[in-house]
Amino acid sequence: MKLQNKKVIQIVSNDFEDLELWYPVLRLREEGATVDIVGEKADEKYIGKYGVPIVSEYAFEEINPNDYDAILVPGGWSPDLLRRFDSVLNMVRVLNDQKKPIGQICHAGWVLISANILQGKKVTSTPGIKDDMTNAGATWVDEAVVVDGNIVSSRRPPDLPDYMREFIEVLAN
């Protein structure tokens, strides 16, 4: 298993894009990684845009990002909620400072924008937030997946296989 002994934070709030959260969680677990589901509250049920639930294991405030090897930010409308938490932005900044993998897909770029870590980075996202990404100092491209250092970005659900293949490679190395 490629990712045995790797620990990943999967942040969550309501209205996540169901596939953009669940597909990465399942793929990483298949590769042997421990994926902790982290929300505003522990043991809270969060509902995706299409009704698929997930229950958080930890609250944002309960975890130490230094104990993890990577973080995943789901798409959907949840990034607009997630970026309002200083603890979420701190997690992203800590992992970025340590050059650990940060995965973002679709609207998840909003969290990275609010964490102020995109200056000079090449990224992709849903085209709907292209202007937000470029205004944050990133170079935006319309590609299935983009890897720039520790940041792995992707556009939307059809790109999930490419996104996870690259994210797993970055995390494994």
UniProtKB/TrEMBL annotation:
InterPro entries: C56_PfpI-like (IPR006286), Class_I_gatase-like (IPR029062), DJ-1/PfpI (IPR002818). Residues 6-169 form the DJ-1/PfpI domain. It comes from the Bacteria. Keywords: Glutamine amidotransferase. Gene3D superfamilies: 3.40.50.880. Belongs to the peptidase C56 family. PANTHER family: DJ-1 PROTEIN, DJ-1_PFPI DOMAIN-CONTAINING PROTEIN. NCBIfam families: PfpI. This is Type 1 glutamine amidotransferase domain-containing protein. It comes from Alkalihalophilus lindianensis.
